[in-house]
Amino acid sequence: MNRVAVLARVELVLLLRNKTAAALGLAMPLAIGVGFALTRGGGDWAGSITMQLLVVHGLTVYISATTALVARRQDLSLKRLRGGEASEPVILAGVMAPMVVLGLVQGALLPTIAVIADAPMPRDLLALAAGIVGGTVVAAGAALATASFTTTAETAQLTTTPLFAATFGGAMWALSSPTVTPLMLAAPGGATAALVRAGFEGGSAWGPLGAMAVWTVATVAVGRRYFRWDPRA
Amino acid sequence: MNEPVIDVVGLRCRYGGFEAVRGIDFVVQPGELFALLGTNGAGKTTTMEVLEGLRTPSAGSVRVLGLDPAADRARVRPRTGVMLQESGFPGDLTVREAVTLWRGLTSRPSQVDESLAMVDLSHRRDVRVKALSGGERRRLDLALATLGRPDVLFLDEPTTGLDPESRARTWRILRDLLAHGTSIVLTTHYLEEAENLAHRIAIMHEGRIEVSGSLVDVLEREASRICFTRPDGVAFPGLPGVAGRIDPDAFRKGRIEIRTRVLQDDLAVVLRWASDHGIQLGRLRAHHASLADVFHGVSHHAAVAA
Prior knowledge:
The complex is a heterodimer. In chain A, 80% of the residues lie in helices and 0% in strands. By secondary structure, chain A is mainly α. In chain B, strands 5-6-7-3-8-9 form a 6-stranded mixed β-sheet, sandwiched between helices. In chain B, strands 11-12-10-13 form a 4-stranded antiparallel β-sheet. The chains are: A mainly alpha, B alpha/beta.
């Protein structure tokens, strides 16, 4: 765990030194999230908060972590780290940790801002918290899987776009229906929307949590199978 | 401590349809520097990666410190240092931050200042890694590979890209580590590096070890040489009657090249012949085989990429 913290600290320093990455992972999600809080989504607070979370999970966690993993592979530091004492899961966790922590912090902060801006208090805080945490975990798993098929930090913007965009589609699909079907939960973003709605309007959290668990296991399995440590291999 | 620190038996490595390493065996004894030589593509780096635990062999067994470098990774890694042929760092970190990061990942690390001083990078400690020259990066690599005071050190072309002074410094560092009991496996394209440092040598060619043994044993394999420019008006049959073999190709190109196992005797024959015929031998050289001669003998057509 100590080694994860050592790696995470360095990765955070790098994130702050890289203006583009810092803007993408810190400033943009906060700005967009505050925007959603202020426009209130026409009184549909579950919709607004879902969008806040999708932006955080998408930009701060998914796209930033994918970019970080690919950049570390490209600058050959993953290769070096793998020759040292830290184990492979520790290295990957260390590189992604800052994005995961920032995702959790922003995921907690933005709904709070929404409540201050007039959203009701969630009825089921645990369900909302599950949406914040679960969405972050899924986004980290997806970053590992996507990084496996991304060769450069520049192309990461391209390879992450389909899933990032799909989460908004899946969430809107789930939010538009009075009852959430298993297919909606399985769609990207659908489970996050269902948990936010459960948080504000009530409903079971187990279905969406199950869907998130499946997403996590599947993306990590893809990463385990296809992740490369050497840009040339 | 008679147990070898590295024991390789029947090692084979296959990438898809290509077999990069085709059944090699060797041992490395404690405190010794073992040099793995060969042309590009001979299988040196693949072999190193297996020893480092970064690649699983397709056949054969590898023990490092009596353990499997891949399966017993957690027990082997704290005792080994690795300098890959190519590895990097995030360019936006400073040299000091890079070493500090590596310290945080290492069980028994040296001090940052101490290791930077060792490789003469103290004055560059606050420079970003991306601003370092190739040679400086290589020295940083060495500082990191040795940071954990390893029992076994793997160095894949440690002095490639270094200027002569930095290379000499690296050699001093390696001799010092050897004196303190570290065992080293090194690959290099610089044959004089192996001649200077290695206790034992293996020359790989197309995935196999063609020659191996102590430096003396390896040099013994190749005949000694006597060379001089072809004197005017001398026909091939008129050359001195040496015990060794005179190269007819070289003769046609205007040189006399004699390969012999009895250097002193044949040299005496040549000198007497020259004296009897009143010939001055131009560019006369007589020498034992160098490692370069052995190397070219193994991979006749392949050039040393250096």
